[in-house]
């Protein structure tokens, strides 16, 4: 698990570098991805399903991104885009296409549906996190 945590941090950090986010926000972006991955793993251990685990993790990523955006006075996307990178189902999408190319259409359709469900969970989680407001004085 330690290796997963380290690589989720490094993956988010590296994507932040590739996406050319400001240097001062790189560590926070990596931390966002790492925390999101930890939440995902925790919910997976509870056997709550991949899509639900992704949904909860993306809500947490969205909330952490809002906090960092206020702290660093930067747009929220500087933090939530690198933060969701560990959750993106790229390997699953590859497997789906691979099964289609090999003629295993039933498995390809199943993996495609799972990929879409995970992608929707990421999007819905980020939208839900926008409903929370951290303004002072409320």
User: How many domains would you count in the coordinates?
Assistant: 1
| Strand residue content | under 5%
Helix count from the secondary structure assignment:
6
Radius of gyration: 16 Å
Mean pLDDT: 94
Structural summary, described in words:
The chain is mainly α and 138 residues long. It contains six helices and no strands. The chain has helices spanning 2-18, 26-45, 50-72, 77-84, 90-102, 105-129. The longest helix is centred in the C-terminal third of the chain and has 25 residues, at 105-129. The protein is globular. The mean pLDDT is 94.
Give a quick precis of the structure.
With 138 residues, this protein is mostly helical. Helix content is 77%, strand content 0%. Helix 2 crosses helix 4 and helix 3 packs antiparallel against helix 4.
What is this structure's SSE topology?
Blueprint: H1 2-18, H2 26-45, H3 50-72, H4 77-84, H5 90-102, H6 105-129
Task: Name the features.
138 residues, mainly alpha, globular
